[in-house]
Structures are given as structure tokens and as C-alpha cells.
Write a structure and sequence with these properties.
Blueprint: H1 6-37, H2 40-74, H3 80-112, H4 117-144, H5 148-170, H6 178-200, H7 212-246, H8 249-265, H9 267-286, H10 289-316, H11 318-326, H12 334-340, H13 347-359, H14 363-388, H15 390-416, H16 420-446
Helix pairs in contact: 1-5, 1-9, 2-3, 2-4, 2-7, 2-8, 2-9, 3-4, 3-7, 4-5, 4-6, 5-6, 7-8, 7-14, 7-15, 8-12, 9-10, 9-13, 10-13, 10-16, 12-15, 13-14, 13-15, 14-15
Length: 447
């Protein structure tokens, strides 16, 4: 089957890739400077803060974004304003819940992790959560109209401003602390929200009243997507939470250094999953599940082909990679990196699994699967961390990742007749296409 997606993938992919590359540069740059500006205990505390807030942001996005895009894509133009207003109200309610949670539980989390400075950090984020309401709502609208260029702009501003504040500290203009770091985090959110409004003001359509029917439709769809997103983030962050409470925040810093490197390798997975959902939502109504099946196999195959060289390089030179990125003070994370980086090859299957199930109308299955995986992960990590320390978290995550991969492929085979072997064939086809492209390019250059 030939999918007429070249133009879509090229235009969308370029800006989505630029967005993720900018996040990579700013995120890596911030990490590079912060591990050198903060103590291990402080950096571990900041890592825990980012893990908590990232979970909440992902849950909020999952609750609203996919349902908004899916229903807006199939609705008439007259209903676009109604759907936008309903999703905006839900966005505000979710933000208020997050803010209340920060105020109520911030002190308790700071006490559990033995980092008193985190209390103020969580209180400031209660305000940041409210500021992010327009940022996320306008981002959802930009995704719905496939305007990935503007999405790139608003994230570039948000991440770039925050990175710049860290860079100035590294250059000696002021001393960085957890307290002023979260103020910079708030300021970047505020300015990027203003920029987002400027970019959507011409296409912004809303209703003057709240439609209960559409609001409940979004709630019904979003409850699974949000719970799935939160479970997924808890799955990825549970090991750090337990390390912080069972061992120390310094162990979180060590573990987080290795996790940061593996996340760099996974940039292609996040890039493609961003542009895959709105397109699969359209394909399922126009061409059926067969088109989605082939799209899944080809997209995962391409991602694995892209990240495989990076995985091999890290496996061959783990000490060089760790020293270059985090510094000699984090050489104790080399063994963690060597084990965890291998299993990043299975993560593209996981990312696209959730995206595809949501797009074809099975957010409930995605939620149940992620929740069970989370429960197994937390239980296994607790016992393994208690016995083996930091490496227990590595072994626990690796075991659950492998088991989840097997179950996911069985489910996709049942629902979409996905053949995992085809994915690996697509890896070979990807390298073949790259070789042909390079060969043609060199021939044209010689002429």
C-alpha cells in the first residue's frame, strides 16, 4: 500500500524534529551546566521536582489534547468553538487541582526526600500550573490544525529562556539556587504563553457557553488517556521516587545522569509520536486499520534504525559518554548507563503502541495495560532497590520493559494484525533507503 503522506511527513516532521532538537539542545545544555553548578543533593532534588511536575503536565495534556484533536478532526466547523471552550474549561479545572496538590502536598514531599528547599519550589509551581493553561490550550489547537511550525516556536521560547537563565549563572552573573531556578521556570512559562496567544489569535474560535454534552465527551475520552499518561510517567519516575526515599537524593542524581543520556537517544521516538496521532486519527476514518498497521510497522522500524547507531556507540564507549556529558563526578553511573541504554531499542515499540491505541479508539485498553505495568514495576523496584541499591532500579525497569514489549506486540497482532518481524524488515529497508539516497546525492554532486 502506498500512503500519500510524503508532504505531511516532510513538513510536519521537519518542525517536530526541530522542536525536539531544540528541546534536546536546551535540555542537554541545562543538564550539562546544572550538574556542574549544583551539588548532587541539590541536583537530585531538582530532578525529583521535574519528575513530579512532568507527570502532572503529561497527565493534563493526556486528559485534554488527544480527545480535543480527535473530536475536532471529525466535527463540523460550526462545532470547533464549542469543543475548544469545553476543553479550555477542563484545562482550567485540571490546573486548579494541580495547584491545590502542590500547596497541600509540597511540604510532605520535601520532608520525605529530605530537601527542605523543595517546599518553596513546589509552591511556586502552583502558580506556574495556572500560567500554563493558555500555553497548553493553544498548543492543542496548533496541533489540531497541523501547525507544527508554531508549536516549535512556543517551545523554543519556553525552553530557550529557561536555558538562558542557567547559562548566565554558569557565566558567573549570579549564583544558581533551587529557589531562583523555579522562578526562571515560571517566567519562561509566562512569556511562552503570551507568545502562544499571539500565534493562534487569528484562528482562535470559541463558544460563549459551556456545552455539557461535549464536555462529558471529552471527559469520557480523556479520563483514560490522562490516567494512561500519568501511569506511564509514574512508571518511568517510580524508580527515582523510591531511590530518593529509600537511599538519597544523591542516588537520584547518579541515576538521573544515565537516564538523561538514554532520553537523548529517544528523541526520534518522541518526534514521530507527536505527528503520528493526528494523522492516524484521520487514517482510521478514511483507510481503516490496515493503513494504521503499516504506519506503525514503518514508523517503529525507522525509529529503531535511527537510534541503533547511538545505542551501539554508548555500549562501546560508556565511560567516554558519561564523562563528556555529566563529568567525572558521575562515573559511578557508567554501569547503569551500560545496562539501561540497551533496552532503549524497545521503547519505540512502547511509544507508538499507546499512540496507535488512542487513535483507533481504545484508550481504555492502553490505560489498563499501563496501570498493570506500573503496579508490577513499582513492586519489583521496591524489592530490588532494597536489596541491590541503584542497580536494583535498573534491573527492575529492564525486566518490566522486556515483558511489556512481548505483551504489547501480542495485543497489536490481535487488534491490527501487526507483525513484529515486519518492523525489523523496515529497519533494513530504512538503511537501504538511506544508502540509496546517499549514493544518488554523491552521484549528483560529482556531475
Amino acid at each position: 500500500m502506498k500512503l500519500n503522506l510524503n508532504s505531511y511527513w516532510f513538513k510536519s516532521g521537519i518542525f517536530s524534529l526541530l522542536q525536539n532538537l531544540s528541546q534536546l539542545v536546551f535540555g542537554f545544555g541545562g543538564f550539562y551546566f546544572l550538574v556542574r553548578l549544583l551539588s548532587k543533593e541539590e541536583f537530585g532534588g531538582w530532578t525529583l521536582f521535574l519528575t513530579v511536575t512532568s507527570m502532572l503536565e503529561v497527565a493534563r495534556v493526556g486528559f485534554i489534547k488527544n480527545g480535543f484533536i480527535k473530536f475536532r478532526a471529525s466535527a463540523t466547523e460550526e462545532l470547533h468553538g464549542t469543543i475548544f471552550t469545553s476543553s479550555f474549561v477542563l484545562n482550567c479545572c485540571f490546573a486548579l487541582l494541580i495547584s491545590a496538590g502542590m500547596i497541600i502536598f509540597g511540604n510532605s514531599l520535601a520532608t520525605i526526600w529530605n530537601t527542605p528547599q523543595l517546599m518553596q519550589v513546589f509552591y511556586v509551581y502552583a502558580l506556574t500550573s495556572l500560567v500554563l493553561v493558555p500555553f497548553f490550550q493553544f498548543e492543542f489547537l496548533l496541533h489540531a490544525v497541523l501547525d507544527f511550525r508554531s508549536v516549535f516556536y512556543i517551545y523554543f521560547i519556553r525552553n530557550g529562556l529557561f536555558f538562558f537563565s542557567i547559562l548566565l549563572s554558569y557565566l558567573g552573573y549570579y549564583k544558581i539556587t533551587l529557589s531562583n531556578l523555579v522562578i526562571f521556570h515560571f517566567s519562561a512559562a509566562l512569556l511562552s504563553s503570551a507568545c502562544a496567544y499571539f500565534l493562534v489569535r487569528k484562528i482562535l474560535v470559541f463558544s460563549n457557553r459551556i456545552d455539557k454534552e461535549w464536555t462529558w465527551k471529552l471527559v469520557h475520552f480523556g479520563k483514560y488517556a490522562s490516567a494512561t499518561s500519568l501511569s506511564s510517567m509514574l512508571y518511568s519516575g517510580a524508580d527515582q521516587f523510591m531511590l530518593g526515599s529509600l537511599i538519597s537524593t544523591a542516588s537520584v542524581a547518579t541515576y538521573g545522569a544515565a537516564a538523561r543520556i538514554t532520553s537523548l537517544i529517544n528523541i526520534p521516538s518522541m518526534t514521530l509520536s507527536t505527528i503520528l496521532f493526528p494523522k492516524t486519527a484521520q487514517l482510521i476514518s478514511s483507510e481503516g486499520t490496515k493503513a494504521v498497521k503499516e504506519l506503525y510497522e514503518k514508523s517503529v522500524g525507522s525509529i529503531v534504525g535511527i537510534i541503533l547507531p547511538g545505542v551501539i556507540f554508548v555500549l562501546l564507549f560508556p565511560e567516554f559518554v558519561m564523562t563528556t556529558i555529566a563529568g567525572k563526578g558521575y562515573l559511578d553511573a557508567v554501569q547503569i548507563l551500560s545496562v539501561s541504554v540497551f533496552f532503549t531499542l524497545l521503547l519505540p515499540f512502547s511509544y507508538q503502541f499507546g499512540t496507535v491505541l488512542d487513535s483507533i479508539g481504545y484508550p481504555n485498553i492502553n490505560f489498563y495495560f499501563t496501570s498493570v505495568s506500573l503496579l508490577v514495576n513499582v513492586t519489583l523496584n521496591y524489592f530490588l532497590i532494597s536489596r541491590y541499591g541503584i542497580m536494583g532500579a535498573v534491573y527492575g525497569n529492564a525486566s518490566v520493559t522486556l515483558a511489556s514489549f512481548i505483551v504489547m506486540q501480542a495485543m497489536l497482532r490481535k487488534k491490527l494484525k501487526v507483525n513484529t518481524l515486519n518492523v525489523f524488515i523496515c529497519v533494513f529497508d530504512f538503511y537501504k533507503s538511506c544508502f540509496v539516497f546517499a549514493q544518488d546525492f554523491l552521484l549528483k554532486k560529482k556531475k
